Amino acid sequence: TIVSVDCSKDALAVAQTNEEFHAVESRILFIEQNIFTSINETSLKQHSYDIIISNPPYIAQEEYAALQHDVRDYEPKIATSDDADGYRFYYRIADIGKELLRVPKIIAVEIAYNQSKKVQQIFTDAGYHILAVKKDYSGHERIVLATLN
Questions:
Q1: In this predicted structure, what is the pLDDT of residue 39?
Q2: Helix, strand, or coil here: 49?
Q3: In the 8-state DSSP scheme, what is residue 64?
Q4: Which of 3, 93, 108, 141 yields a CA-CA distance of 20 to 30 A from 120?
Q5: Sheet of strand 101-110, all strands in order from the earlier edge strand to the far edge
């Protein structure tokens, strides 16, 4: 079973359309939730999880204006930028992973092409061990996989 979490009702509606198209309705639970809300005040706490996989908004506020038009004009800003330094979600994911995940706690996150060292540091400072860093087809480090026992 997959639990899909997003703060955007519109994003969840698109995901549910895809769920129906692929006939996997019985395997996905959708939760509309801002992950910056206290976990104790959310329905996320009703479940335990084996892994967190996230493609969070990671474009820094200062970089957002310089995005290519086909990204900036097509994707909602809430889906691409954290309106901060680009790292806000990684700190939160590392934190909530400690509460929500079963042991071993495993997290996989997508990162910007230039965020690998900082994101790895965020997770190691939070007590996680970096399992792997995966590159995209252009050779940029784009996924960090971390664990906490």
A1: 84
A2: strand
A3: H
A4: 3
A5: 49-54, 101-110, 141-148, 129-135
- For range 8-13, the mean pLDDT: 95
62-97: pLDDT as tens digits: 999 888 888 888 889 999 999 999 999 999 999 999
DSSP H helices in 1-149: 9-21, 61-64, 69-72, 77-80, 88-100, 116-125
C-alpha closest to that of 107 among 141, 136, 131, 135: 131
Strands 141-148 and 101-110: antiparallel
Close Cβ partners of 130 (under 8 Å, ≥ 6 residues apart): 120, 123, 124, 144, 145, 146
Give residue-wise pLDDT tens across range 112-146: 999 999 999 999 999 999 999 999 999 999 999 99
What is the predicted pLDDT for the residue at 2? Answer: 94
What is the rounded distance in angstroms from the CA atom of residue 116 to the CA atom of residue 120?
Answer: 6
Structure tokens at 59: 């474009």
